[in-house]
Structures are given as structure tokens and as C-alpha cells.
Amino acid sequence: MKSALLEGLAEKTFALIFNTGDDVVSLMLDFATQHRVTAAHFTAIGAFSSATVGYFDWEKKDYLKIPVNEQVEVVSLIGDIALEKDKPKLHAHVVLGKRDGSLVGGHLMEGRVRPTLEVMLTESPARLTRQMDPESGIALIRL
Question: In sequence order, what are the beta bridge partners of 96?
């Protein structure tokens, strides 16, 4: 394990409220780019009309896509933003609740909002960067 104190002038917290039809991943990346976010973490609740979550297959070094083609509650959405090749990269995990009470979760790849998603994003004044890890085949935060 490694750690680093993320300090600077001050943290900023943004409330990002998404509406029906919004694509969460692309709009969060757009927000991070426009606001020059270099390090942040976030939590969210709301609902999706559809989503795709991923399960990382260690042997294939790729995500297996799990489509969710129904209305679901976003029971929990947590993640972070760091820079990869000087561009914001979103890393988020989500737990989705289905009508029958069952859950599906994993790496958030796509999420289409219906009717809302309430994201609380806290930006750190520090800078975090991701670099490709040859063992896993994915970009990991490097301190």
C-alpha cells in the first residue's frame, strides 16, 4: 500500500445533477475536462434506464461487459477521477438494484439516467495520475 497526503489551497465540492437521458460517464468526463479536474472522488445515488457494468477478467486482461437493460436504482456509485496522459479518467464502481430486489454491480462502463442521478464530486487541489500497469493491463494511480 502507498499513501499520499492530498493537500493544497482547499477542496471544492460540486453537486452534479443529471437528468433523464443523460450519459453519466461522458458528461462527467466533459465536466472534469471543462473544470480542469486533476484529482477527485465522488458518490452518487439515483436511477438508470439502462447501464453496462464490467467485471475485470484477470486472465484476459479485459472487462467482461454485463448489460443491464431495465430500469434500476443506483444503490451506490463511487469512484474517482485522475489524469491519464493528461486527460481526466473516470474510475467508478456501481451497485444497481433491480425490481425484484436483486443486485448487479461492477465497473461502470455506461449509465443512462432516468429520472435523475445526484452526484457529489469533491475535487482535491492535488494532481493524481494513472499509468499503465503491465501486470494487469490497466492504468492504475501512481503516487
Answer: 74, 104
